Amino acid sequence: MAFSSENAFFNKYEFGKLLGCGAFAKVYHARDVNTGQSVAIKVIQKSRVNNNVNLMANIKREISIMSKLRHSNIVKLFEVLATRTKIYFVLEFVKGGELFAKVAKGRFGEGMSRKYFQQLISAVSYCHSRGIYHRDLKPENLLMDENENLKVSDFGLSALTDQVQADGLLHTLCGTPAYVAPEILAKRGYDGAKIDVWSCGVILFVLTAGYLPFNDPNLMHMYKKIYKGEFRCPKWMSPALKRFLSRLLDSNSKTRITIDEIKRDPWFRKGYKEIDCQEIEDFGAVVKEEEKKLVDLNAFDIISFSSGLDLTGLFDDKYKALEDVERVTVEESPEKVLQKVEEVVRAAEGVKLRKKKECGMELEGQNGKFVLGLEVYRLTDRLMIVEVKKKAGDAHVFGDLWRDKIRPVIMQQPNLQVAGN
Questions:
Q1: Is 42 assigned a ligand-binding role in the annotation?
Q2: Is residue 402 part of a domain?
Q3: Which residues belong to any copy of the Protein kinase domain (predicted)?
Q4: Catalytic residue among 136, 196, 296, 301
Q5: Which tens digits make up the pLDDT trace of 284-315?
Q6: Whether residue 400 lies in the annotated active site
């Protein structure tokens, strides 16, 4: 693995290759020059979050949560560093990749699925015992180490018990669409432990079936299946596993199986050994004094870039007034989105493509009287965020171009949609 000393920072880390890229952060393989240890470094551009109080708060909460966790099946946070423009999370490097990539090659047998599920439940149980709820469990957030042991990652959407409201429940809408629990879709308050159990059930189904229990090309139809708990187990599953899954994926949160009940289930208990957790160490996830003002992320908050996404928008396609910024979520590749926009521009009178970037472009109209910026960010393997900004000119003209010409073309089926912030 080649590292670049030119990219070394704080006289401690040398950067290697880019491992992944999201809407707000990039993750690199790096090396500690003092010990030779491999680490993963998540780099967040402050300019992406400085004007969003929710995102700033979420970053602080993620640091707070990960600094509390020491478990063999949870990715470790070693330290947090910052410069004037960037925040760096220095994390345990897990070189086996995502569990998602492994299961994408083919479903697992029940024995292997049970092993990974036992490790997942051990990690989730540990978190819950410390008042931490992950809220975005999915195979993409489960990594594999060199010994093929599971590591839970990405606590950016997690919640702490101090976020529970007077009714004893959490209320922030969060989760990845295919893994989100019915009570979240219903916009009711929810028990953080129960929604994690639901997501664990979806993961177990995916491991053993090789596909999602709730899936539909139409997002609205998929959510309706989730809300009703409509799924069918494949014939090759054992009766014991089918019974177990029916309790994990119980659409009634009050009767859904608990973590303690999971550990007593006959299918789960086969070969299970409870892990002795290390005592939580004060391992120095230090945020420098200049970063104290950063305040802690959550799944639909990321999808919506706001604190209160109303899911009724999934079932009601009313246009919301456009301000200076609007973001929508689509199920298209960035290349396809940009291709569609170019086709619209070619057909639109008086509009031209002024500048093209790797994942975005600038559009100009009326001889420079208005300029529109458009960028596409990858949220998951299927979901992209399209962000449009009025950079100059009349808001009404900007709104007409976006609302009447571009938006209908890139959104040809019901998708998550959010008005400008």
A1: yes
A2: yes
A3: 13-268
A4: 136
A5: 333 333 333 222 223 333 333 332 222 222 22
A6: no
